Recover the amino acids of this structure.
């Protein structure tokens, strides 16, 4: 496998409470159990044109014994209710329930395939009951729910509450690019994309996305993430959702993103802007573009940017001795303050 990204390292150490970050211990358990999957089953699809309402998720993760908060989308269509984002392993996956007497009942259902480092897993929702208040602005499931792959439990939450929010349009804060560098696999950009508006107020990450631009001596264009260059994309992208990751080239929140091109030496600057989209009308505001100036003949690389500290971790995020054997994560802190991570096998 090519590399492990910075966001996955953070996930190993802190079990990031953010939708879209896979629990590596559980995936490792699936591998150890030699779980095989098949791409079959009917995936839940909401009605075309239905309004997706934003709700905040609050629940207790019984595996990590931590409370988590993130964002989900809910559609109510007569006596049917659809929820997207209940699984941290398949954030785009929908489940469908039937409403009767103020209770939304979700049967066991197939959610789809999620990919992790080239392996595919067939995810199932194991059923749940959500009690709804009169205006469906709050949905609660004290008993929570689980998802699983062939009996191996992945998501596991109790004391779940979904609360409807009414986001207001805002201009997102300007993101920044902190470095553009190179390793054995290609060139990548390190970015900071605040989930705040220009006044410093928090905005909803689920409604935030970003776009990368390339400048070639004044000729500016939008960078396209193509399926030809990005092995784990299902379709080309020019706008990347804030919470999106392919677990390979693109980190959540754009923390580290690999860029590909035949003319990288001709790039004179890389730009990034944030995009915030609210409501069924898709009202959108964009940040200012942040430009990171390049010297095409002197792109930073690990070879010229001195390593000041090297640390090794196992796949559970525990720091280990530099002489340890097995599959390890090698993290290097560079002279300019950036960090780089790769997998090593000894």
């Amino acid at each position: 496998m090519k590399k492990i990204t910075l966001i996955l390292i953070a996930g190993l150490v802190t079990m990031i409470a953010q939708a879209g970050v896979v629990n590596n211990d559980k995936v490792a358990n699936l591998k150890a159990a030699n779980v095989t999957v098949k791409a079959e089953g009917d995936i839940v699809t909401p009605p075309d044109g239905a309004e997706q309402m934003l709700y905040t998720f609050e629940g207790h993760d019984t595996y990590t014994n931590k409370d988590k908060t993130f964002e989900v989308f809910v559609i109510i269509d007569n006596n049917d209710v659809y929820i997207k984002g209940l699984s941290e392993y398949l954030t785009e996956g929908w489940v469908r329930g039937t409403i009767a007497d103020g209770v939304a009942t979700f049967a066991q259902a197939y959610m789809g395939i999620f990919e992790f480092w080239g392996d595919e897993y067939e995810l199932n929702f194991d059923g749940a009951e959500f009690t709804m208040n009169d205006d469906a602005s709050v949905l609660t499931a004290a008993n929570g729910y689980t998802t699983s792959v062939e009996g191996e439990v992945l998501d596991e939450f109790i004391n779940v509450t979904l609360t409807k929010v009414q986001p207001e349009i805002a201009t997102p804060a300007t993101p920044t690019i902190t470095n553009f560098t190179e390793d054995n696999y290609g060139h990548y950009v390190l970015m900071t994309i605040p989930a705040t508006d220009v006044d410093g107020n928090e905005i909803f990450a689920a409604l935030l996305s970003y776009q990368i631009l390339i400048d070639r001596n004044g000729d500016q264009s939008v960078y396209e993430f193509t399926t030809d260059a990005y092995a784990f994309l299902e379709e080309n992208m020019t706008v990347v959702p804030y919470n999106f990751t392919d677990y390979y080239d693109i980190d959540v929140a754009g923390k580290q993103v690999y860029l590909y091109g035949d003319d990288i030496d001709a790039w004179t600057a890389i730009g990034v802007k944030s995009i915030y989209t609210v409501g069924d009308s898709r009202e959108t505001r964009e940040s200012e573009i942040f430009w990171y100036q390049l010297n095409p003949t002197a792109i930073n690389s690990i070879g010229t940017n001195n390593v000041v500290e090297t640390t090794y971790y196992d796949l559970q995020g525990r720091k280990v001795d530099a002489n340890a054997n097995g599959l390890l994560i090698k993290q290097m802190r560079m002279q300019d303050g950036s960090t780089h991570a790769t997998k090593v096998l000894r």
Observations:
- Residues 1-20, 296-305 have pLDDT under 50 and may be disordered.
- The two ends are 14 Å apart (CA to CA).
- The CA atoms of residues 114 and 191 lie 25 Å apart.
- The longest helix spans residues 6-14.
